[in-house]
Design brief:
The chain has a domain of about 110 residues: Beta Polymerase, domain 2, CATH 3.30.460.10. β6 and β7 form a beta hairpin. The C terminus is likely disordered. The protein is α+β, with helices and mostly antiparallel strands. The strands form three sheets. It has a seven-stranded mixed beta sheet. The protein has 19 helices and eleven strands. The longest helix has 19 residues.
Length: about 400
């Protein structure tokens, strides 16, 4: 029985990064022997065990054989005779197909270290084409490593294109697409995820609503939506804000289609809907003329569309998206900051309005909400200076 550190932990150590988690491969052992040593079995499709002290995952070396289309069409084989190299050969990329002995010796049968130095994502073997999830994984690794100068090897890009043409990408289930998408949105350069999928033709298959938004401009250069995603990624770490920056320009029907098909969590869906409402009132992604910020009726409609009085945090997220969208179309940073500050100041002023309890007692139920709205409008009308009073920043 031999135990090896494998995969991402080895890769990250060589890149000088701190591994977020460690995975291990065990050769020469049986499930019975692992359980006898105190390991707890957790694998459903193949034998994976948790270490009795560290709770890190230890998997028995295994082989995989493709028997049907799609990413689930595999039969897993394991036995004490499966070697470490056989296990590594079934992995996706050479940089993930390295192992390390307990004494620190690197085991690198497929040139992963050289590809790290070249900054290249390269598939290990033709078996890469058997699992369409690997298309998503390559795109996600580009979202992580593009800032370090990584590119997809030409032969790997060609293989990904062939997989899409063969219909493998169409076999991906929405849950798996969403899982990789959400993880990519948290990476340093999420735009690279969508660009990588677009380059191999997979974006139109798995995220058709976003294909047009991510398409390069006719004269070359990134699309405004892609630039908006870059701006959001530079400003905030929040995946929902980043996705809304990219997809905020979609029609409402496209937003509903995207969220329903991917079963997107409620916070993503709500923010996309909010951005759609705000953009409709704004007439697009460019900040409004400054004199518009002196219109109390327009200001109040914008704040109500953002549900700013009940959930002020939504206005903050919406403003982050709008700022990124404005940057994507080249709007003046000063105009963007002024709009955000002014709207935040208006929200704070209107939020201070309170109905007198004695007045509430004299009003019928439906009239209470109407009266509160009248007072909020009056507060905004009496303070046109909110258009220039932005020192406190947007509503939190």
């Amino acid at each position: 029985m031999q135990v090896y550190l494998v995969g991402g932990a080895v890769r990250d150590q060589l890149l000088g990064r701190t591994p977020q988690e460690r995975d291990w491969v065990v050769t020469g052992a049986t499930p019975e022997e692992m359980r006898a040593l105190g390991y707890r079995a957790v694998g459903r499709d193949f034998p994976v065990f948790l270490h009795p002290q560290s709770n890190e995952e230890y998997a028995l070396a295994r082989l995989e054989r493709k028997v049907a289309p799609g990413y689930r069409g595999f039969v897993t084989e394991f036995s004490p005779t499966v070697t470490l190299e056989q296990d590594l050969q079934r992995r996706d990329l050479t940089i993930n197909a390295m192992a390390q002995r307990a004494d620190g010796t690197l085991i690198d049968p497929f040139g992963g270290r050289a590809d790290l130095e070249r900054r290249v994502l390269r598939h290990v073997s033709p078996a890469f084409a058997e699992d369409p999830v690997r298309i998503l994984r390559v795109a996600r690794f580009m979202a992580r490593f593009a800032p370090l100068g990584f590119t997809v090897a030409p032969e790997t890009g060609a293989l990904m294109q062939a997989m899409v043409r063969a219909g493998e990408a169409a076999a991906l289930v929405p849950e798996r697409v969403w899982r990789e998408l959400e993880r990519a949105l948290a990476e340093p350069q999420p735009r690279a995820f969508f660009e990588t999928l677009a380059a191999c033709g997979a974006l139109e298959v798995v995220l058709p609503e976003l294909a047009a938004a991510c398409a390069p401009r006719a004269g070359g250069g990134p699309a405004p939506a892609a630039l908006a995603l870059t701006a959001a990624a530079a400003a905030v770490p929040t995946p929902p804000v980043r996705l809304a920056a990219l997809a905020g320009g979609l029609a409402e029907s496209q937003i509903e289609s995207l969220c329903a098909r991917l079963r997107a969590p409620g916070d993503y869906r709500e923010l996309l809907r909010l951005v759609a409402r705000l953009r409709a009132l704004l007439g697009g992604d460019v900040p409004p003329p400054r004199q518009r910020l002196r219109d109390p009726d327009w200001l109040l409609a914008l704040l109500e569309a953002a549900d700013a009085f009940r959930r002020p945090e939504r206005l903050s997220a919406g403003l982050q998206v709008l700022a990124a969208r404005a940057a994507g179309v080249g709007a003046s940073p000063e105009d963007v900051a002024h709009f955000a500050d002014a709207l935040g100041a208006a929200a704070r002023r209107a939020a201070t309005v309170r109905l007198d309890p004695a007045e509430i007692a004299t009003l019928p139920g439906p009239r209470i909400a109407t009266r509160l709205r009248e007072l909020r409008r009056a507060a905004l009308d009496a303070a046109p200076e909110v258009a220039t009073a932005g020192a406190a920043g947007p509503a939190a």
